[in-house]
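Dear colleagues,

For the upcoming journal club I promised to circulate an example of a predicted protein-ligand complex. I picked one with MTE because it came up in last month's discussion. The inputs are reproduced below in full, followed by the predicted structure.
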Amino acid sequence: MIHDVLQSLSRVFASPARSPRMAVVLGRLLGAAFLVCMVTGLYSHVLQQPVPWMVFPTRPIWLYQVTQGVHITAGIACFPLLLGKLYAVQGRLFETPPVRSFPHFLERASITVFVASSIVQLVIGLLNTYQWYQLFPFPFRQTHFALSFVVIGSLAIHIGVKLPVIARHWSRVPDGSQPDNSSEPAVASTVTVGGITGRVLRWIDASPRPVSPGASRRGFLAAIGVATAALVAFTAGQSFRPLDGLNLFGARKQGVGPQSLPVNRTAAAARVEQTALAPDWRLTVSGPAGTRSFSRDELAAMPQTEVVLPIACVEGWSQYATWRGVRVHELAALVGGGPESSVVFQSLEQRSSYARTEMGPEFARDDLSLVALELNGETLDLDHGYPARVIAPARPGVLQTKWLSSLEVSEA
Ligand SMILES: Nc1nc2c(c(=O)[nH]1)N[C@H]1C(S)=C(S)[C@@H](COP(=O)(O)O)O[C@H]1N2
Ligand SMILES: [Mo]
């Protein structure tokens, strides 16, 4: 099969791959991937920056793991698809004259904006999964969010202007009778890709069987399909445990780190070693009925709940663990909180965007939302948030605040 793919690749450069049909086939895969990224990305964004009236589902517990895992995986799949698509339309990117008419100008402008913004969007997204965001001279989430509208907006215009071409090449037409009037060279080829790969490609491509240009076109698709599938298979393990064995490129392996869980920011990096280990540490809980504070021993003497929940990081990696601690709503009730109360968590960590997080009522009243004291049967590791941290279902990892110092319970 690899031999077939390589052989096809060499023919690709000959190249009926550069056809409107190929642009449409790749375009719709790319469009679908972008749409998936946009929807899952918006979900992640509003979870982190909710509009007041919003209420989020707290089940299934792996909801965010899946939406964000899909977001990252689909984003990674966009790289080969976008490169393939650019290759397929290459000639047209630099056509002359540069502008013929207003619609033509619109087409050119939108495609320029789309290509530039989506490359930036994909690259900063990928860098973020490897935690290189500390290097960005801009706030990642806001930038990624804003750019997504530029990407989707220019894509919408691009699709709008290209609708006639898209419609013409949407479904399979026998080779040789493609109604595109293009001067495709008819490269004869005997290369076909067999087996499951071939079947998947034929399903994606939906062009007819071998003969003439279709074969090389399928070779091109094969190369892109194999690259995409490999990238997905070799990274998705960071989000989805069953694929861990294949995880070669993903930023995180399963089960690596203190107490079998990765650490994003260590206590040292967060500069909380002193305060977190201070013997007089207390958790301050304030609410409508006043303010109380608890030592770690006092918290441990309260009724404890054990839950199995994933940390699901925005960077795409997710890992399950067993957590034990006090239910958020049971703590909140001690200071007059009720089922409609929201809770603000403050960390010992200073000057970090993760140091203060807000939890809406739907999460705060959930029986699975804890101020956790233990992880996988042991006292929380210092790097995992000792003396106490937040853990709650279906939320982004960034909201699972470590090294807690206080909870403010709002009036119901
Ligand atoms: N105070 C504080 N809490 C934090 C963080 C942080 O940097 N500071 N990182 C968050 C992020 S991005 C994630 S994914 C989880 C990771 O938890 P872990 O490092 O304990 O595995 O903790 C969250 N809680
Ligand atoms: Mo994270």
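Two points we might discuss: The CA atoms of residues 70 and 236 lie 9 Å apart. The chain has a mean pLDDT of 85.

See you all on Thursday,
B. R.
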